[in-house]
Design goal:
Radius of gyration of chain A: 15 Å
CATH architecture of chain A: Roll
Strand content of chain A: 35-45%
Largest interface: A-B, 37 and 37 residues
Oligomer: homodimer
Helix content of chain A: 10-25%
Number of helices of chain A: 3
Distance between the termini of chain A: 24 Å
Largest sheet of chain A: 8 strands, mixed
Shape of chain A: globular
């Protein structure tokens, strides 16, 4: 079961400037930041609210660390904007298997490492009405 | 203060098919549907989770009712995908005024009618790092 909007992933050219925009305009602060070498991104998580499943919803601001990363290629094509949306679940492995069974392409054979020690996978946007969709099981890191 | 991710607005060509995709794939059900003549959209709200400010987060699926509506033009240019994101606040008028003061273009002089009796306004995506951003104060309709 998917029990929350975990985050909205937003691609940007300059993470520091974008973080500053969200702070100055709305008062949102950085809750966590990290570099994910595998995904080729520097990221900042802004925590917006708690959720009824005991988790939280974030904005995830993403700057590519290399042009040939998925986010780097996407930015070159689309410019800045919403890159993906993510739903939280207690069981990313089970959900991914169920959804694959329904004929939706799951991009990873096994979930990979996401923000704050989470485990994540992605669904093909062409199978999801144009929306790159992530499934997340939270980790315990902050 | 913006206290939650209120919804993610997703533009689609066929609302019924897209609703069915979200139901069959994830088990998300329609919480509310309506036609907003002013915005030129038919929409379905899928409630995903409750939020720590006493509200909720939704997916808002949008099908244009006419080609010359904002969503119709956006779809013709971009195809299906995430159209906007929306933050919830108790005071859309005050937030819009504060944000306008900071130099971000607010698209309406006064908030207009949104889903379920809410009052909404939009911020110019070029002033928000490519993200069309909505501010919402919830109504009491369902």
């Amino acid at each position: 079961m998917l029990t929350r909007i975990d985050h909205i992933g937003i691609a940007c050219f300059d993470l520091d400037k974008t973080v500053e925009f969200y702070r100055a305009t709305y008062g949102f602060e950085v809750y966590h930041s990290e570099i994910n070498e595998e995904q080729g991104v520097r990221e900042a998580m802004l925590r917006i609210n708690g959720t009824s499943d005991g988790g939280a919803s974030y904005l995830q601001l993403l700057e590519p660390t290399r042009e040939d990363s998925a986010v780097g290629k996407w930015l070159a094509k689309n410019g800045e904007g919403v890159h993906h949306i993510a739903f939280g679940t207690e069981d990313v492995d089970g959900e991914a298997a169920d959804i694959r069974e329904k004929g939706v392409r799951v991009l990873y054979d096994e979930p990979r490492k996401g923000s704050m020690g989470s485990r994540i996978t992605f669904l093909h946007p062409k199978d999801c009405h144009g929306v790159l969709t992530e499934l997340v099981t939270s980790g315990t890191e902050h």
